[in-house]
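quick one before i forget lol
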Amino acid sequence: MGRMDVSEFKQSQKMPLVVVLDDVRSMYNVGSVFRTSDAFRVESIYLCGITACPPHAEIHKTALGAEDTVEWKHFDSTMDAVQSLKAEGYKIFSIEQCVGSTKLQDIALDANTKYAVIFGNEVKGVKQEVVDASDACLEIPQFGTKHSLNVSTTAGMVIWEFAKQLIVK
């Protein structure tokens, strides 16, 4: 099927996207985000606050080895990660429903810009101070009775939209 091995993956060109997990509680969600990030060659994952870090059996159960391919860093706080990303010139989007947010399908990305997307805690979402420090908020329109999606589902949708615009030809 023409799949890369770990060494080839590590050396391959990555999508200019950092995925930030803000106090994500479920290790299964963390593993799922690793797996999706591997699939689309995300540059890195920043694991913040209480978000668990590899190696861990529950992360591995859904990551299926992607925790060994995708680069990652841990930050004690998400604000530390945001400050680091800003210093490196990233445009930062919190994935959150808020006044003035942009619908996911309406974003127009520039291949010459580095991006970061922040996904929040399964119950509380992205912390308000992190939302305030972001360049903008993105939201996925929803039409049912629920007004939120599982964080790993949301990550898959958002990462795919970035991949469509930045790497899929």
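fyi Strands lie at 15-22, 42-48, 72-75, 91-95, 102-103, 115-119, 136-139.
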